[in-house]
Amino acid sequence: MPSLACFREWTSGQKHYRLVLANPSHVVDSDREALARATADFSEACRVDDASGSVEAMGRHLSGRGYVIVENFKVVDQDA
After folding, report:
1. Which domain holds residue 55?
2. What pLDDT digit, counting tens, does each position of 32-56 carry?
């Protein structure tokens, strides 16, 4: 399923994840397809933010696309 992670990157290169959104209404067959969908949805949400100047509008847009907040998430480091 498509998912988006919001994080802040420290100067040391470490990432501090603030939240994760996932779209359980759009289940796909591959990671590649999920990534493509999440990228397209995020790009569209950024255009909404740019046009409105409102991160709240961006959030409402993603919510309308089916994204929900993932509680108690854990990010797996793929480089490990």
Report:
1. 3-69
2. 999 999 999 999 999 999 999 998 9
